[in-house]
């Protein structure tokens, strides 16, 4: 169990906001944070736990860059307050694989050159993992529709689709 | 976002009491709309009451042959529930036509009813908006109103209710179950959302402090002949310009019963029971559908940028009723999502 103090990493708070404890299981580790109730799950991950793989894109649930898995389901972490997730199991891009052992989706994104700038990629991969967990998509049309919550401003969609299709195909066989 | 306190409610009556004892308190379900409105400073609650521990997330058959959706069941769990897929496929289609998979995993069924309009001016604190700040005026009238309403509008507000799910719930005669300071009551779906009139700040007929606990679908689900047709600026993950929930009960080619509701056109899901009555007893033909569509849009009013919606809605009604009659193929782009893993 790791305890995290109320100040974001490397930043001294101007005034101390009222905090409350939140216990989460993040990438297999139990963590307790003492945070202000208005801290989103996204900010808790990035600012308090140094898990900066999850990206802040629009911060309004429109782009999908902040997608993480909560109890195995993909969600927009920017639209959830961390205090609402008490007791939840959170998986971020850092928990999907490691540099030594990439997850199948991470490897497929490399193999298919499924990104340009890479900013949307952690969200794309977490979303694709959620899509595979849901098991509703098998065809390209279905994958396109059920990945529509993740935008890529570089327009790498065709290669993202190829990467996801490869892993969807493997997970079915 | 402004500062606020947060508490997780343990039971429905405790949540209702908590709300009554805090000025400026709000219930929070999935948070997908409320957290966004708080970031934009459109909503400024001083206290949030979390509902996640209340249960109320089950979907169960009712003794009268219907189906009860728990208020806190997620949109995704509802759309993919086997009873919804088999008995209420119109609802399945409507839910899957809305938002994104991530949002549907978070958003609750009651929250879907409670979401606020996406009218640009409602979100823009620099402009007048009667819904956000009563008495300041409506910027959409005479402004950018491509997404705004054409039916049931008022001089105070031309905003639309943005939901897809609610259009199907309206067509299916859903009952809304609520608990409040004065106990429990039920509200007919068509009476739940309201027209703007002189009080566009009020989206619905809930009394202060009331909490939605469930949605009851009646037995009749129109699972044989139905269509949810959604027309929008891109083919996925966009709000409807016009949507149509159409459901028919057919005897040969004769219409025995009909349901017709529109989304994207009014301050509430726009169910038209007079149009439904016109369909009953008639042959299910394009000619019938065109006459009914003309009737539905008879009193429509365009505001310039959105005037195209009047003709679009007429054509969408004809097409949706035709799709519901024929059930030939995937009746909309989302129909393929019904397949189970």
UniProtKB/TrEMBL annotation, chain A:
InterPro entries: 2Fe-2S-bd, 2Fe-2S-bd_dom_sf, 2Fe-2S_ferredoxin-like_sf, 2Fe-2S_ferredoxin-type, 2Fe2S_fd_BS, Aldehyde_Oxdr_Iron-Sulfur, Beta-grasp_dom_sf. One of its GO terms (molecular function) is metal ion binding. Residues 20-96 form the 2Fe-2S ferredoxin-type domain. SUPFAM superfamilies: 2Fe-2S ferredoxin-like, CO dehydrogenase ISP C-domain like. Keywords: 2Fe-2S, Iron, Iron-sulfur, Metal-binding, Oxidoreductase. Gene3D superfamilies: 3.10.20.30, [2Fe-2S]-binding domain. PROSITE patterns: 2FE2S_FER_1, 2FE2S_FER_2. Pfam families: Fer2, Fer2_2. This is (2Fe-2S)-binding protein. It comes from Hymenobacter glacialis.
UniProtKB/TrEMBL annotation, chain B:
It comes from the Bacteria. Keywords: FAD, Flavoprotein. InterPro entries: CO_DH_flav_C, CO_DH_flav_C_dom_sf, Diverse_Substr_Oxidored, FAD-bd_PCMH, FAD-bd_PCMH-like_sf, FAD-bd_PCMH_sub1, FAD-bd_PCMH_sub2, Mopterin_DH_FAD-bd. The keyword Flavoprotein applies. Residues 1-222 form the FAD-binding PCMH-type domain. GO terms for molecular function: FAD binding; oxidoreductase activity. This is FAD-binding molybdopterin dehydrogenase. The lineage of its organism: Bacteria, Pseudomonadati, Bacteroidota, Cytophagia, Cytophagales.
């Amino acid at each position: 169990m790791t305890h995290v103090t109320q100040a974001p990493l490397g930043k001294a708070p101007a005034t101390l906001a009222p905090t409350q404890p939140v216990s989460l299981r993040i990438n297999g580790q139990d963590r307790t944070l003492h945070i202000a109730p208005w801290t989103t799950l996204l900010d808790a991950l990035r600012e308090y736990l140094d898990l900066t793989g999850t990206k802040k894109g629009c911060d309004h649930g429109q782009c999908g860059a902040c997608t993480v898995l909560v109890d195995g389901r993909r969600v927009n972490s920017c639209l959830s307050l961390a205090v609402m997730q008490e007791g939840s199991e959170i998986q971020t891009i850092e928990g999907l694989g490691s540099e030594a052992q990439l997850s199948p989706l991470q490897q497929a994104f490399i193999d298919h050159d499924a990104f340009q700038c890479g900013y949307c990629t952690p969200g794309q991969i977490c979303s694709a993992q959620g899509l595979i967990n849901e098991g509703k998509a098998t065809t390209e049309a279905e994958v396109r529709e059920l990945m529509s919550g993740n935008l890529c401003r570089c327009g790498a969609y065709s290669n993202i689709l190829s990467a996801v299709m490869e892993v969807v195909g493997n997970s079915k066989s | 976002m402004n500062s606020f306190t947060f508490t997780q409610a343990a039971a429905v009556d405790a949540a209702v009491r908590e709300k009554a004892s805090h000025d400026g308190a709000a219930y929070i379900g999935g948070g997908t709309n409320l957290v966004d409105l708080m970031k934009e400073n459109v909503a400024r609650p001083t206290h949030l009451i979390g509902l996640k521990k209340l249960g109320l997330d089950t979907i169960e058959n009712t003794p009268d042959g219907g189906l009860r959706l728990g208020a806190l069941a997620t949109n995704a769990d509802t759309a993919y529930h086997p009873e919804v897929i088999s008995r209420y496929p119109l609802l399945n289609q409507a839910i899957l036509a809305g938002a994104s998979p991530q949002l549907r995993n978070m958003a609750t069924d009651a929250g879907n009813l409670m979401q606020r309009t996406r009218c640009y001016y409602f979100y823009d604190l620099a402009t007048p908006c009667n819904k956000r700040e009563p008495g300041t005026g409506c910027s959409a009238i005479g402004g950018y109103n491509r997404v705004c309403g054409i039916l049931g509008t008022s001089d105070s507000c031309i905003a639309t209710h943005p939901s897809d799910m609610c259009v199907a719930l309206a067509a299916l005669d859903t009952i809304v179950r609520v608990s409040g300071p004065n106990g429990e009551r039920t509200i007919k779906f068509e009476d739940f959302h309201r027209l703007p009139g002189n009080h566009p700040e009020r989206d619905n007929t809930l009394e202060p402090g009331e909490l939605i606990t469930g949605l009851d679908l009646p037995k009749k689900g129109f699972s044989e002949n139905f269509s949810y047709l959604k027309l929008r600026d891109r083919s996925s993950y966009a709000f409807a310009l016009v949507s149509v929930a159409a459901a028919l009960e057919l005897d040969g080619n004769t219409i025995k019963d009909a349901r017709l509701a529109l989304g994207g056109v009014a301050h509430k899901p726009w169910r038209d029971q007079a149009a439904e009555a016109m369909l009953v007893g008639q042959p299910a033909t394009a000619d019938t559908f065109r006459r009914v569509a003309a009737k539905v849009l008879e009193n429509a009013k365009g505001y310039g940028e959105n005037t195209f919606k009047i003709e679009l809605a007429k054509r969408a009604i004809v097409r949706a009723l035709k799709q519901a009659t024929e059930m030939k193929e995937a009746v909309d782009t989302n129909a393929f999502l019904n397949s189970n893993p």
